[in-house]
Predict the 3D structure of the following.
Amino acid sequence: MIIKPEVMRGGLVKNPHPIGCKAVVEKQINYMKKKSCFSDKKRALIIGGSSGYGLASRIALAYGAYADTICISFESGISDKRIGTAGWWNNIWFKEQAEKDGLIAKNIIGDAFSDEVKQQTISLIKKTFDGKIDVVIYSLASPRRTDPKTGITHNSVLKSTIGEISAPTLDLNKQTIVSGKMLEATKHDIDETIKVMGGEDWQLWIEALKDANVLAQNFKTTAYSYDGADATDAIYKKGTIGAAKRHLEKTALELNYMLQGIHGEAFVTVLKALVTKASAFIPLFPLYGCALFKVMKQQGTHENTIEQIDRFMRDMMYGNKRIIDETQRVRSDNLEMDVNTQRLTNEIMAKMTAENFKKISDFDGFYQDFLELNGFNIEGVDYNLAIDSEALKTKQP
Ligand code: NAI
């Protein structure tokens, strides 16, 4: 079987290239292997660790803190009809390499929002991690969540809390700018998005782990957030997703208080804008990303996913260069938020048209990152080589 990217309407790549995904995971591991470690050995749980920032966190902890890891993710595997999701393959390749390097790596595929997966994880911690974990990274991005107490499924939406706004974006399939709008959110929309992307589930996780007595002394947990610049303010900070992130921040303060007895800490970390499965579909965000990448690459401050997470963990999670804002959030997005960077990014965005955007922004870099999410266009991978799907079917995460 030869696999080519199947691009759907709006630009989503439907199918991953398993061997390309392997190369992407290896690239991130190799980046970490060249660096010194930033911590002594850790036992880590990554909730949402199969792609994007969660995967980079798992790799950074494994190779920067000798961490044994458990990853929770919601992915589907290979069948006669489908090749599986990119996250499925990322889990497999990470585990294969980590085990070769003498680390424990466990994958739980299931709904992180459910009580069952929480209990399954606790059993695994007791069985394989001497009953304790040192760090939990909460990196979920999900369109829906079933509340385990009520059984009701809530849906998150990307809407505006300040009235309907125009939100042009990139159609990555047609490689063109398309006009679009963000509809005004109702109170129900805001509540639903908070239910899915707010802090409730993070809190349930930490409470369940604490009640099971599996949190080690000096335990740390962080949930990832984005804050956004002026250019994305209306769609992000003042959108339903921003409302959910404010809830996440309130949760961090409560969790931080709850963890004092074990000298633990909980905080929200604001990360840099990057291309991931989740972010590529936020209106306006891709245009901002293309302009931002251009400026940050020119200034030599651009970081890809693993570079951003490595710096966050090395300097701010385990190091002594933590940047904290007035709401106690850790600001690893400091280079993106630099005043000059923002000014230059805004200048590019103001000039962007359907005709010139590829030339004046870093569309090529943004698009490359987008293809990499599914393992395409990676140097050294022969895409004309047939994939042995029967051999791949024998691999389990
Ligand atoms: P992603 O889409 O690459 O990863 C999401 C992860 O969540 C995957 O591992 C997926 O399997 C897992 N997941 C989703 N639903 C699940 C469920 N029900 N049960 C178990 N696992 C489930 O997303 P990305 O972009 O890495 O986002 C992670 C976090 O980082 C989000 O909170 C996001 O807001 C934040 N962030 C993202 C930025 C960006 O530019 N991409 C910037 C700053 C923060």
About this structure: The two ends are 21 Å apart (CA to CA). Residues 7-392 form a domain with the Rossmann fold fold (CATH 3.40.50.720).
